[in-house]
């Protein structure tokens, strides 16, 4: 435990790319889901997915069908596509290794009785199942996913627990995470993968390739 760790009231975590090293799992699933539409569509869909991390999955899939596959989808078709996607990723995400520093950070928070929350774009029920099957449920006060927006989830938690926003930290790897933190008044830590050519975050955002809680005050 770091003696310099700030007294956060709570820490909010995205999941893919922050807790689990599962970003590539989702990219492969998008490529598989859109394989019937050809290689060019697959490439565009995967690029959109990677450029829009943190977006609720159903919104992302709908956009890709309309924009890249040229197909208007019904709610039933969208639900079927979502179920197919879930079947492609569930086991792989459960088996994915943790991002360096994630487990240590969760253990530190637990030792200090600082609650941790998952705020993800993954569908809510699926996200809860993954956290439990990875044996991480013990570390989180609550686990949340889409279709609720990240800002809405955070606002609800801040209200229910009477947290002060600038005494809470959001750790994420996507612009959607940063924007959710900004809009709700949270401090933010950006996770940038090893080997990334540049950061997607504004210059004033502190970033790291590992999850850490001791960089902030």
Quick structural gist:
The chain is an alpha/beta fold. It has helices at 23-33, 39-51, 57-67, 75-95, 102-111, 124-133, 150-161, 175-184; strands at residues 10-13, 116-123, 142-146, 168-172, 187-191, 207-208. It has eight helices and six strands; from the N terminus they run E-H-H-H-H-H-E-H-E-H-E-H-E-E.
Topology summary:
Elements: E1 10-13, H1 23-33, H2 39-51, H3 57-67, H4 75-95, H5 102-111, E2 116-123, H6 124-133, E3 142-146, H7 150-161, E4 168-172, H8 175-184, E5 187-191, E6 207-208
Parallel strand pairs: 1-2, 1-4, 2-3, 4-5, 5-6
Helix pairs in contact: 1-2, 1-4, 3-4, 4-6, 7-8
How is this structure best described in words?
- This protein is α/β, with parallel strands linked by helices.
- It folds into two domains: 10-22 and 97-208, Rossmann fold, CATH 3.40.50; 23-95.
- It is built from eight helices and six strands; from the N terminus they run βαααααβαβαβαββ.
- The chain has helices spanning 23-33, 39-51, 57-67, 75-95, 102-111, 124-133, 150-161, 175-184; strands spanning 10-13, 116-123, 142-146, 168-172, 187-191, 207-208.
- It has a six-stranded parallel beta sheet with strand order 3-2-1-4-5-6, with helices on both faces.
- Helix 1 packs antiparallel against helix 4, helix 3 (57-67) crosses helix 4 and helix 7 packs parallel to helix 8.
- The chain is globular, with a radius of gyration of 17 Å.
- The two termini are 15 Å apart.
- The mean pLDDT is 91.
Number of helices: 8
- Return the structural class: alpha/beta
Count of beta strands: 6
What is the end-to-end distance?
15 Å
Q: What's the CATH superfamily of the largest domain, by name?
A: HAD superfamily/HAD-like
Mean pLDDT: 91
EC number: 3.1.3.18
Enzyme class: hydrolase
Pfam families: Hydrolase
Organism: Desulfobulbus oligotrophicus
């Amino acid at each position: 435990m770091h003696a310099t760790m700030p007294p956060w009231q709570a820490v909010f975590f995205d999941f893919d790319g922050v807790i689990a090293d599962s970003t590539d799992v989702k990219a492969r699933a998008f490529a598989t889901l859109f394989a019937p539409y050809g290689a060019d569509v697959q490439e565009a869909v995967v690029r959109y997915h990677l450029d829009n991390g943190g977006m609720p999955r159903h919104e992302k899939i709908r956009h890709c069908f309309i924009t890249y596959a040229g197909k208007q989808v019904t709610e039933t078709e969208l639900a079927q596509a979502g179920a197919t996607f879930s079947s492609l990723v569930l086991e792989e995400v459960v088996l994915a290794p943790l991002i360096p520093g994630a487990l240590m950070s969760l253990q530190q928070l637990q030792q200090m009785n600082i609650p941790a929350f998952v705020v993800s774009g993954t569908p809510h029920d699926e996200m809860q199942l993954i956290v439990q099957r990875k044996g991480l449920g013990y570390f989180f006060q609550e686990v949340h996913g889409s279709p609720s927006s990240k800002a809405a989830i955070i606002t609800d938690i801040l209200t229910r627990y009477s947290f002060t926003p600038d005494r809470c930290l959001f750790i994420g790897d996507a612009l959607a995470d940063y924007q959710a933190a900004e809009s709700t008044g949270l401090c933010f830590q950006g996770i940038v993968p090893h080997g990334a050519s540049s950061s997607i975050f504004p210059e004033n955002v502190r970033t790291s390739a590992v999850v850490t809680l001791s960089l902030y005050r």
